[in-house]
Amino acid sequence: MKLKVYADRMSQPARAVIIFCKLNGIDYEEVRVDISKLQHLTPEYSEINPMKQLPAIVDGRFKLFESHAILIYLACSYPGIPDHWYPADVCKRSEIHSVLDWHHSNLRRGPGIIYQNIISMPVIGRRFNPEAVAEGEKFLSASLSKIESFWLKDKGQFLLGGNKPSIADLSLVCDIMQLEVLDEADRDRLLGPYKKVEQWIENTRSAANPHFDEVHKILLKVKEKRQNLRLKGANNEGGGSAMKKPLLSRI
Amino acid sequence: MVLKVYADRMSQPSRAVIIFCKMNGIDYEEIKVHISKGQHLTSEFAEINPMKQLPAIVDGRFKLFESHAILIYLACAFPGVADHWYPADVSRRSRIHSVLDWHHSNLRRGAAPYVFNTTIAPVLGRPLNPQAAAEAETILTSSLSKLESFWLKGNGRFLLGGNQPSIADLSLVCEIMQLEVLDEKDRARLLDPHKKVQQWIENTRNATSPHFDEVHKVLMKAKEQLQYQRLKAAKNEGGSYMKKPLPSRIWP
C-alpha cells in the first residue's frame, strides 16, 4: 500500500514534505485537503489527524502528523536517502533538531500568521487581526535576524554551515516562501535587509529544483492574482504607487 | 570533561533535562543560571546559547540548546539509557517526535504564558497581562483536553499508550508542573476536569522518583511563598492579592 500524503500546497509544512518525497524518489499518493474549503475540519479528515492540521501521512496502518516528525520518519524509513538530509552523526543530527525546535517558537510564528490574516482568514469569512499581523512581523524580523547572524554564520551554503541541504533547510525555506504572496515592496522591506537569508533561499531552491518551483506554483498563482487586483485597484483610483504605504493599510 | 548543564530549576524544560540526567546516571555538572537575576541575558551566557534561553548543554566542545534536542542527544550519546526513553523503533520514535512538536505550539504555548501573565510577571518586574493570560488559557485548556482525549487514550500509563515513560512524558509533565504556582482554585479549575492527565502526572512522578520531587523542590518553595503572600494580602485587604506586585524574593 502506497504512502499517502495529506496536503494542501498552500500550507508551508505540506510543501516541505511533498518536495522531500519528490527529491528522494519516494512513491506516494498526494491526497489534496483544501484548507480554503475547510476540508481539514471534516470528521473524515479527523480520522487521519485529530488535530485537523496539515500535513499528515498514512503509511500502511501507521498514521503520523507534525511535518518535522514526518520528514524524520521518511528520512529513516525509506531506502537510498542521502545522509545530508538527516545525518546519522549524533551531533549533526542534534543541531538539526535544535533549529527545527527553534523554528516552532520563532520563524513559524511569522510568515504563517501574516499570510493567514491577509489571505486565508478573509477567504473563510474571518476578520483579519491587525495586532496579529504586527506581532507576526515582529517574530519574522527577529527570526530572520537570528538566521542571518547565527544559523547561517558559518561558511556553508545552508543552515548550520552545511554544504548540502537538510530537512531543516527545506522546512524553514518553505515557511519563508509564504511571503511571496505579499506585494514586492513589502516582501523587499521584510527580507531585503538579510542578504545571507536571500542567498540561502536561492541555494535551497536550486538544490531542490525542479520540484521546489513545481510545488510552489500554486502559491505563485495566488501572488499573481493579488498583483493583478492591486494594479486594477490602483488604475481605478487614478494610479499612484501603493508601494510606500505600510502593509496593514493596504490589506 | 564532564557534561555541563546550564539550568534554572524554575524553568520547566531545564527540569526535564536534569531529571533525565539523574534518572540515567549521566555524570554532569549543573550550572545555575538565574532567570530572575537576568543571568541568561549576560554576554557570558550568550557564548553558550545566543538565543539566551535555558536549558543549554556543553559536552566537550559540543554546545546544544532546545530541551527536546538535548534530551534526544543525551538518550543517543550516553550509554545505558533504557530504550523506552527514546525508542530505536522508527514508528514509536516518530510518534514521540510528533507529540514533542505538538507540545511547542500547544501545551507550552498555553501553560507558560498563562502562568507568567497571571502570577510570575510581577516577580520579574513585569506587568500582569490579562489579555495575554486569557489567550494563553484558551490554548492551555484546549491542550489539556487533547492530552486527555488523544495523547492519553488507550490503556497505557503514559503518553502514546506507553507503559514506561519517554522523554515526551518528562517534557510535558514538567511543563504542567509549572501550574503549581497558581492559586489553588485556579489550578483545580484547570486540571480537575482531566482525570487521565492527573493520573499521568502522578505516574510520571512515581516513575522518576525520587529525582522528580527533588528537582521540583525549588518550584514548590515558590508555590508556598506565593500562597503565603496571597493569604496575607487577603487578610490585610479583604481582597485579591493579584493587583499588588509580588516581592522579588518569592522567586528563588
UniProtKB/TrEMBL annotation, chain A:
It comes from the Eukaryota. Residues 89-229 form the GST C-terminal domain. CDD domains: GST_C_Theta, GST_N_Theta. PROSITE patterns: GST_CTER, GST_NTER. Transmembrane segments: none annotated. Gene3D superfamilies: 1.20.1050.10, Glutaredoxin (3.40.30.10). Residues 1-82 form the GST N-terminal domain. It holds the Pfam family GST_N. Belongs to the GST superfamily. Theta family. This is Glutathione S-transferase T1-like. It comes from Hibiscus sabdariffa.
Automatic annotation (TrEMBL), chain B:
Residues 1-82 form the GST N-terminal domain. Residues 89-246 form the GST C-terminal domain. CDD domains: GST_C_Theta, GST_N_Theta. Pfam families: GST_C_2, GST_N. Gene3D superfamilies: 1.20.1050.10, Glutaredoxin. InterPro entries: Glutathione-S-Trfase_C-like, Glutathione-S-Trfase_C_sf, Glutathione_S-Trfase, Glutathione_S-Trfase_N, GST_C_Theta, GST_N_Theta, GSTT1/2/3, Thioredoxin-like_sf. This is Glutathione S-transferase T1-like. The lineage of its organism: Eukaryota, Viridiplantae, Streptophyta, Embryophyta, Tracheophyta.
